[in-house]
Amino acid sequence: MARSEQQIEAGRTPLGLWWSLIAGFAAWTFDLGFSYVLEQHSCSTGHHYLLHVISFVCLAIALTGFGAGLVEFRRFPGTTSEEGGSPFDRAHFQALMGMAFSLSFVVVVIAGSVPRWILSPCD
Q1: Fewest CB atoms less than 10 Å from the CB: which of 9, 19, 55, 62?
Q2: Rounded to whole angstroms, how far apart are CA atoms 35 and 33?
Q3: Residue 90 covered by a domain
Q4: Residue 80 has what pLDDT?
Q5: pLDDT of residue 4
Q6: Is the pLDDT score of 90 beyond 90?
Q7: Parent domain of 56
Q8: What is the pLDDT of residue 13?
């Protein structure tokens, strides 16, 4: 039995499930924070690409959360469902929610980066 399955049976959440639940939010937080902090620097030095690099890195972070959720989701036996009360059923639901959260925050990061592509940081 795999280590993550042993953790689920013991009532603990594997690290991959935790990451899938928080990766999207962390990516959006980093994107918003670093873009705000580095906007003035980007304007004064003319390095506008820095804001785009931040968005791409944060997009990749959010996608790793989706990937971690997908890996954990595929580890479950075929008998799990969203309706049951067993530890595997709860972990199955957490994996689905983690993938949904990550993809939702991918959209949020993309939506936040669109104005950076269109507008100058010096305006």
Answers
A1: 9
A2: 6
A3: yes
A4: 64
A5: 58
A6: no
A7: 16-118
A8: 72
Q: Of 23, 51, 61, nearest to 114 (Cα)?
A: 51
**pLDDT at 37 (0 to 100):** 93
In the structure encoding, which two tokens stand for residue 115, read together? 């104005």
Residue 111, domain member (yes or no): yes
Q: Would you say residue 8 lies in a domain?
A: no
For residue 107, the surrounding DSSP H or E stretch is helix 87-118
Compute φ and ψ for 82, nearest 5 degrees: -80, -10
Number of domains in the chain: 1
- Does a structural domain hold residue 1? no
Q: What is the pTM assigned to this prediction?
A: 0.83
User: How far, in Å, are 52, 83, 100 from residue 74 at the CA level?
Assistant: 33, 18, 15
- The reported pLDDT for the residue numbered 111 is 96
Tokens representing residue 3 in the block = 């280590």
d(CA 70, CA 78): 14
